[in-house]
Specification:
Helix content: 55-70%
Order of helices and strands: HHHH
Protein name: Transcription-associated protein 1 isoform X3
Mean pLDDT: 83
Length: about 80
């Protein structure tokens, strides 16, 4: 794997570290989540995707199990 291919994956791993850090501000976590979402296809096509996926699943599972639900007050009504 070349250095150029590593740069985006390392950036995305840094975003995962932000999500995993309980001291990170919510705004920073939101930005990290948006960046991961916007570049998901690029991540999937990377040779480092299997290790990224393994690491990200651990982080996302921890967030889902240990985190508190977040609601936007203006949008608390369920939509059908």
């Amino acid at each position: 794997m070349s250095v150029i291919e590593n740069v985006p994956v390392n950036t995305f791993r840094n975003y995962l570290n932000i999500l995993n850090d309980s001291s990170s501000k919510d705004e920073l976590k939101l930005k990290a989540t948006q960046e991961l979402s916007e570049h998901f296809e690029m991540i999937m096509q990377s040779p480092a995707y299997p290790s990224f996926l393994e690491n990200s699943l651990k982080i996302f599972m921890r967030i889902l199990q240990d985190g508190e639900p977040q609601f936007i007050q203006e949008n608390t009504m369920q939509h059908r």
